[in-house]
């Protein structure tokens, strides 16, 4: 389904079954829209794609609009919307292969390995702008959990779960729903929910990665130095910023590299086109990220960084610029730094 604006929800709903008798169309649209960000975050965790998540939420909104006159209020509007969103996601996941990162599919390659042919978009977990999935305000502890739960590594771990287990774990562990609430949403029993949660936790424990560190002053300085070194293409300066086991991945290609030596060898060789790049800061997956433009001003990649122990441990470079740059609100040609 094509993504639509709020006004388009109203038009489509008016053409369908109509709104609830106790809510004017504009009021109902506003009530539904209030849940868009958190629902998008939920669907992104379920599906691993920002584009699929937005489509799933749009379908949720349309279904809610059309059925709102039959909503009896036995559950909260929020719970009802999550029930619809869960059903939409489970339908989308029927028969589909799980999305992954390059490192989830194969062993690291060497810098001399041919890059190969790009794989279809449905193969990969994609990045998502923080503003689409994370609340701008709220309890700091809850916001920290939310940021951690949209990290690429966590999304990749979720994709290893069966779809219903995935829903149970997100609702229980990320959104703090009770087992009874989740059972009601899924039309299941509390015992079944607890069993699914136990199995999901065991699966995630086997593939867990260390939690991300908070973006404090030292990390901000690390990022400043990274931008400076990358834009000057000073590989000696970049060497000091990379962890010895740092990784480089470049979806839609399956090839990925591990180790500072191969990382830098790639930049000196096949990645030499990065010389003269401009980096524009964005926020993705709860982590620091950049829109990378080539020296000629054309978009090259969305970079999402992993940082730990004062070093850059991973660079995920997503090359589908035609779709991703508009998603992040970036122009398709570099116009220079924004005025201070």
Weakly predicted, low-confidence segments:
1-21
Share in β-strands: 5-15%
Distance between the termini: 39 Å
Radius of gyration in whole Å, from Cα?
Answer: 21 Å
Alpha-beta content class: alpha+beta
Could you give a short account of the major beta sheet?
6 strands, mixed
Write down the CATH class of the domain at 217-327: Alpha Beta
Helix proportion:
40-55%
Mean pLDDT: 89
Strand order of the largest sheet: 2-1-6-5-4-3
Count of discrete alpha- or pi-helical segments spanning 4 or more residues: 15
The CATH architecture assignment of the domain at 217-327 turns out to be Roll
From the spread of the alpha carbons, the general shape counts as globular
Q: Kindly identify the CATH topology of the domain at 217-327.
A: Nuclear Transport Factor 2, Chain: A
User: What is the H/E string?
Assistant: HHHHHHHHHHHHHEEHEEEEH
Mind explaining what this structure looks like?
Residues 223-313 form the SnoaL-like domain. The chain is of the alpha+beta class. Among the domains are: 6-93, Rna Polymerase Sigma Factor, Chain: A; 217-327, Roll (Nuclear Transport Factor 2, Chain: A), CATH 3.10.450. 47% of the residues lie in helices and 13% in strands. A six-stranded mixed β-sheet has the order 2-1-6-5-4-3, sandwiched between helices. Helix 1 (6-15) packs across helix 4 (50-67), helix 3 packs across helix 4 (50-67) and helix 10 packs across helix 11 (190-206). The radius of gyration is 21 Å and the shape is globular.
